[in-house]
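Example complex used in Figure S2.
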Amino acid sequence: MANKIIMTAEDIRRTLARIAHEIIEFNKSTERLILVGMRTRGVPLAMRLAANIEHFEGVKMPVGALDFSLYRDDFNSLGLQPIVKSTDIPIGVSDRVIVLVDDVLYTGRSARAAMDALIDLGRPQAIQLAVLIDRGHRELPIRADYVGKNMPSARDEKMQVQLKEVDGVDEVAIIPTPPVKEESHEGS
Amino acid sequence: MREVKQKDELAPEVRPEILATTPVWQHRHILDLDDFAPAEIELVLETTDAMKEVLSRPIKKVPVLRGKTVITLFYEPSTRTRSSFELAAKNLSADVISLSAQASSTVKGESLVDTLATLEALGADIVVMRHSYSGAPYIATRHMRASMVNAGDGWHAHPTQALLDLYTIREHKGGFKGLKAVIIGDIKHSRVARSNIWGLTAMGAEVSVCCPFTLLPAGLDVVQHHFPKVHIEPEIESALCGADVVMTLRLQLERQQSGLLPSIREYVKLYQLTEARLAKAKADAIVLHPGPVNEDIEISLAVAQGPQSVINEQITNGVAVRMALLYLLAGGSR
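Predicted assembly (522 residues):
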């Protein structure tokens, strides 16, 4: 089965423009906002949102990058080590409104880890969540404030988000489950 | 297959990153740098960058090693290595127990293997050991399932010191390719020198050693297949000429009694790193020392506290490097 493309580069561009407007509208001002991208693909998304907000409102937004590897709840069961990169947020988070940005919202566990990581850095006035894709299957009571596209999916499907800055191309696709036969050969 | 399945249970948004990491880190123990590939050293240094950011926060604590037990077992005295490991483990929220030979059942005659069995039964996940016998941590790995970190064994190896030296060098020089590093002092009895030779040469630096012939390890001057190539420079001025990195070693003063040095005064005269001698190195050369410093013996006080000295940075970086190593070790499944 072929990959099913659900967002093209043009779709992603329009969606990020809409989310930027929603962020401005919902917060009524951009004064206390910081956009924080969750590594890896949340970071370029946060930068694009910041560029959009700058274009619409003429204000330069602070943008940060957050690595939440050290806050994961599945560290013991991974059997391998996620690479930890630096967290880099240009200004203190205390009394600021943080918009966390990620590519896909799924179980909610990454968002939970990211919130814990943020709270260790200070006491934000509020934390909001912006995602490009919400694919459902939440395991924690977490929802996004800004959603690019709701894309109900099966658990065994893979959601592949590719962004120019990381992957060289802008595209969101669903990769169907490989046939059972192939899987039994994998990793043996 | 099992690992692939586990990955599939993860939130897919983090999956690409994890897949990117799998082939690099293969170590269950950290015994020496002789079995570290350049990519593995690079991974440690990159992870250290992230840990340094944690150390810069007002609350220097992350929860990643919650529920893990780290035991430090020191058969030799130590200030910085031990406290550095313990701080590193605590910053990652591990539980830490520290044992020293003087205060343990060793004085009642308990053997190393028995002690390790006890630590295992207590539930140690990682044991950090310093021992005066070369090879002791290797024997230890055969008698326990916990991860072993060698915090110095005899004259043989001190891998975490070498990694923190590498990290400090990378911070100042950006990389290692083509760097000229000089190690001055008692090479023969130095585990720091040996581990640094492995690490520096693996990363592409050129290493010279400078010491009296009595303090040169036997066989270092002949080409060997099992040890990296180093240059031997008996004369300090020519050794320092054009150096980017100058590493001085602690002269163990008790060596003088063993007849290897005619006198400390002669050693000071011929091998002490002074400001005048350091001027032969590159203007931006950095000076390292693993500590503790014998002031005005292997290094003059003016150099040790001078603008080119990075001795205090080494100590700070040591905590971050050890956090990175504990993190990488604890992530593996048993």
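The interface with chain B takes residues 39-41, 67, 69-72, 74-88, 102-107, 109-110, 116-117, 120-122, 156, 158-159, 161, 186-188 of chain A (CB under 8 Å). Residues 104 and 133 of chain A are 5 Å apart (CA to CA).
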